[in-house]
Specification:
This is Integrase catalytic domain-containing protein. The protein is of the alpha/beta class. It has 8 helices and 5 strands. The chain has a 5-stranded mixed β-sheet with strand order 3-2-1-4-5, sandwiched between helices.
Amino acid sequence: MQDVHGVAISHQTILNYENSVALLLKPYVDHYPYELSDQFCGDETYIRVNGKWHYLFFFFDAVKKIVLSYRVSPNRDTASAIQAINDVLLKMEEIPENLTFVVDGNPIYLLAQHFFAQNDISFDVKQVIGLTNEDPISTEYRPLKQIIERLNRTFKGNYRSTQGFGSDHGSVSFVTLFAAYFNFLRPHASLEGKVPVVNPKLSGLPTMPARWTKLIELAQRWIVEQRSA
C-alpha cells in the first residue's frame, strides 16, 4: 500500500481489520447451509498462541472439500474432540444413519463417540493408525486421512509466515479467515478449478478483492436478517 498507493498502514491496523472481518464472517461460515457428502475426516495440527503450542482441530468434508470445524484449543483432549465433532453435526439437517468420521489413532475420538452415543447420537469412527497400512481399516480409509493431511499442509503454508499469535482471539480470527477463504473463494484442482461452495453472488466477480468484499457484505446481510427474524 505504501509503494503503490502512498498509504502507510500499520501492522496493528491490519490486525484490527482481520479481527473485525473474522467476527463478521464466523457466523456466516458456521451457519451456511452446506450441501454435504457422507465422507468426513478429522485431524489436529499445531498452532502457536502466546508462545505455547495449541491444537487446531479440523473436520472436513473429504468429497466437497468444505471445512466444517476449525477449533483452536490449548488441549488435545476429549472435550475438544467433542466440540469439533459437534460443529459438524450442527451443520446437518439430520444425522445420516451411516455417518462415519475418519480420524487418527488418538483415543479421544472414541471417547467422543461414546459421549454422543450416551446422548442418542450414533456414528462410526474409523481410525487410521500409523504411517503404514498394518490393518484393514487403515488400508481402506487412509486415502481419506491423507486428504485432511493435505488440508493441514495448506493451512501451514498460510500460517507459517505469522510465526504464531499473541492472543487466543488472534488465532481464532486467522483460522476463521482461512476457513472462509478455503470454502468460498479458493479454487480446487480436484473440483475442476471450482470453489467448494459455489455462490452465484461471488462467482461472477472478476477479482479476489471483489469476491472478498462481497463475501463480507453477504455475512453482514445474514447477521442483519437473523437479528430481524
